């Protein structure tokens, strides 16, 4: 896909996600050819769609499609997904009213799940986390430029600039990890990428909350929506802490660390 077509597709997806969410977004993405994009251009479709889900704050059940594609199963099923603390959840719109504890996502806890391979799904959630982190950074940057104290914008204060800079570095590092090819070690690479994205999003939530101050806690401001979302997404398919420990245990058992990127 050429850059112009990609830009048009991104603009169209962003406008769609800003206008609808949930089942309505599922239907809209189906009309836009999500199934074909995922099947034929997964390396392009997954980063684009899931990053935009994070940036816009919308949600759709497209993660199920990624999991089923990797497992070679027919689309339309609702697989159980692992959650932090040895839990399991399923995407269930019928129980959406009972899911407020899970960041506004229609996730319902279940007793047990299957054992699906999740490299593409972990990368997808990683891009979702990165998109949410970008959205929080944008809100904090805008506030830092508009908020004036002692006669100048707080963006000129060193402490504020350090928090914003640390957030940006974390996001850029997570994006770099998510774009590693991982052909030789897809499970390890995706596991580390999801962990890096989770850490970056949590860093963004912490620093952006501090930059925004009291207004960031209010219901009227958009930050709280993204903070709750990243707390849930970090736990989905394994939290950053759990995945980091799992990767370390695997490397210790192996006795060596594979080269994941050529620098």
Automatic annotation (TrEMBL):
- Which GO MF terms are attached to this record? fatty-acyl-CoA binding; flavin adenine dinucleotide binding; glutaryl-CoA dehydrogenase activity
Q: Where is the Acyl-CoA dehydrogenase/oxidase C-terminal domain?
A: 119-240
Residue stretches in coiled coil: none
Keywords tagged on the record = Flavoprotein, Oxidoreductase, Transit peptide
Q: What InterPro entries does this protein map onto?
A: AcylCo_DH-like_C (IPR036250), AcylCo_DH/oxidase_C (IPR009075), Glutaryl-CoA_DH_mitochondrial (IPR052033)
Q: Which domain of life is it from?
A: Bacteria
Q: Which Pfam families match?
A: Acyl-CoA_dh_1
Q: Has the keyword Oxidoreductase been applied to this entry?
A: yes
Task: Name a single GO biological process.
Answer: fatty acid beta-oxidation using acyl-CoA dehydrogenase
Keyword Transport attributed = no
Q: What is this protein called?
A: Acyl-CoA dehydrogenase
Q: Which organism does this record belong to? A: Mycolicibacterium hippocampi
